[in-house]
């Protein structure tokens, strides 16, 4: 594998901002990003939303174990690990980084870089948020390490916010798939409570910020988060329209068929 | 024995045994980089592995990584209890933390991999 | 200082506890810069006295960090045509190295609401990004410099209009630094550091740019500025900014160069009668009434805001921008009422004591019938009334350029 040695001023992070898409397309686009990152030797970012409420399973979760209240939802399986995520009211931030890049080394590094950037953006807006210190830190009463749902777990570096009741609510969690040449990190920023989630749904960033007296604009948070990630990388930022407009040309359509395959979705 | 141990760039180690098989695991560096391992998926005994191809997956709290076969061959044994005690990987990655034993198609293929010094140099040059 | 950062929240007065830092933040501190929060950035307002810094630019040279301004590039085969469709001036046919002042307006496709988002410099840049094929004119790159306070919304607007392919929009603000060297000695100082490029840099025409090696560092050098004085603006990679600043300061020491902060930048541009976004130029401004008609090219063109500007061009009667010179030194501030014969006829948009003139001046938007030079006005500064008169803009015009030494 060859890597491009970036010239500081000209090396760029590419970012695609996609229209809402179904789960198989989102999964495929994120895998496509990995190839792009390897090809350029530089990190790439994709922000996306979900066109329907969807449950994404971690790579090893058993599809038969989906809680009854969520069993009717469309299902996809991520290549990344972690717990199941209820999508639809979240903003998904995928970062793909070539392994030769400084962010492609130790797993926690990329996790922290991306999450810390959002904490800084929120801090600048007067919204309190923090990175969870991990198992030794304050635990939500509801947090269980083996919970089926990602947002019921707490890992070091998860972004949490005061929930007004003395606990810290998780609003941003990420999980990685570490390919040979690239790392793909799926991040889910819960924006508002998902009406499809019933008792499993949690309040999101917008609602928890409102409880702190701050009204947040989603696109503004997204753009500033992106700027903060860019600044942390020391690179320039190239903005693109979404990458899912040309699914056939890019090969995303072909990748998506793998994510629609029941053998993959129900592999466990 | 560890003098004969070889490493793949993808951080697996392989050690030829006296019976013509070879033991495979992942390096201490890889375990350290992943942190907080929670799950491991192993191949079945009797299945084939291909050099450079995934033969299993390992999940940490943050990440899923593939395990890549350093050489091609047939799986003759797996460390079946390892997924239940993944902490062994951290404590003894080159001993009790072995993952699979394979019968290489070509025993000489092992010699083409990195020796300890070359692997250490690779790790030292890897971004942190 | 003028301009506030656009708040991320719906609240008007969000204070940013962690403003952004330019690559020169430590350099500013080392040189005694007094740091303030400006448009979300930690910037030096002054190093010593604003008057000294102002006068250094008029008499010798001043060195400004303007890295907080947004630096964007647009490249790809459709870059020029695409950008042309969004700017109030033609930018597609510019020769390489040409720089042009323009406005950027957005138009709500549904309701047709037009907002002037910013004023900007667009350059047909003499640079090719490293990741584009280097093929002469086959890969044109257009550069934009936008105001710090508007960078985010300009980016968001431009992104929303990006085609699926053929154009790449890059924000290079964080990876680069931009310095301004302004003053009659600027040409000698800057060109003196460019080695074999010196003749080309010294001969650079106003509103044009070139690549050069400046103090050993690859740079884009433009003969532009915001002070009313001769001068240059240079863009270098962020890691090299400190070394370039040190070299410029050392090269200009004998000529009297001073590092200058945003305070002097504001008094200089005010003295030169230059409008500032957020003060003279607002979202709903009539560009013709501000004297920015030259930034609107309506000839056979359609672009966001073009129909509103066409109507504005045909209509006269609203308030216009004027200069007001005061008898005393007390400065009127933005928002102060301008009064003629006892009745309010406008508001001050910028005001300050001006070192070169030794008196206070202001720019104001006032009713057209009072805009004739010589009209006596009063401006209410807090509780007192300051007498002044309408004067032509600019307040200061630099002497005819002399031969470059």
Topology (elements, then pairings):
The complex is a heterotrimer of chains A (268), B (128) and C (405).
Chain A: E1 12-17, H1 23-40, E2 44-48, E3 54-57, E4 75-77, E5 85-87, E6 90-98, H2 107-124, E7 130-131, E8 159-162, E9 168-178, E10 182-190, H3 205-211, H4 218-233, E11 236-241, H5 247-250, H6 252-260, H7 262-265
Parallel strand pairs in A: 1-2, 1-11, 3-4
Antiparallel strand pairs in A: 2-6, 3-5, 6-10, 7-8, 8-9, 9-10
Chain B: E1 6-7, E2 12-16, E3 22-26, H1 28-34, E4 37-41, E5 48-49, E6 54-60, E7 63-68, E8 73-78, H2 87-91, E9 100-104, H3 116-125
Antiparallel strand pairs in B: 1-2, 2-3, 3-9, 4-6, 5-8, 6-7, 8-9
Chain C: E1 20-21, H1 25-30, E2 34-38, E3 41-46, H2 50-59, E4 62-65, E5 70-75, H3 79-84, E6 99-107, E7 114-125, E8 141-146, H4 151-160, E9 168-171, E10 176-182, H5 186-191, H6 198-202, E11 209-214, E12 217-222, E13 231-237, H7 241-252, E14 258-260, H8 262-271, H9 287-290, H10 306-314, E15 320-326, E16 337-340, E17 343-354, E18 359-366, E19 376-381, E20 384-391
Parallel strand pairs in C: 1-3, 4-14
Antiparallel strand pairs in C: 2-3, 4-10, 5-8, 5-9, 6-7, 7-8, 10-13, 11-12, 12-13, 15-18, 15-20, 16-17, 16-19, 17-18, 19-20
Question: What do these coordinates show?
Answer:
The complex is a heterotrimer of chains A (268), B (128) and C (405). Helix content of chain A is 28%, strand content 23%. Chain A contains 7 helices and 11 strands. Chain A has helices spanning 23-40, 107-124, 205-211, 218-233, 247-250, 252-260, 262-265, and strands at 12-17, 44-48, 54-57, 75-77, 85-87, 90-98, 130-131, 159-162, 168-178, 182-190, 236-241. In chain A, strand 9 and strand 10 form a beta hairpin. In chain A, helix 2 (107-124) packs across helix 4. Chain B is an alpha+beta fold and 128 residues long. Helices cover 17% and strands 34% of the residues of chain B. Chain B has helices at 28-34, 87-91, 116-125; strands spanning 6-7, 12-16, 22-26, 37-41, 48-49, 54-60, 63-68, 73-78, 100-104. In chain B, a hairpin with a 2-residue loop joins strand 6 (54-60) and strand 7 (63-68). The longest helix of chain B has 10 residues, at 116-125. Chain C is of the alpha+beta class and 405 residues long. In chain C, strand 6 (99-107) and strand 7 form a beta hairpin. Chain C is globular and about 60 Å long. Residues 1-16 and 127-138 of chain C have low confidence and may be disordered. Chains in contact: A-B, A-C. Chains A and C meet through helix 2, helix 4 and strand 11 of A and helix 4 and strand 9 of C.
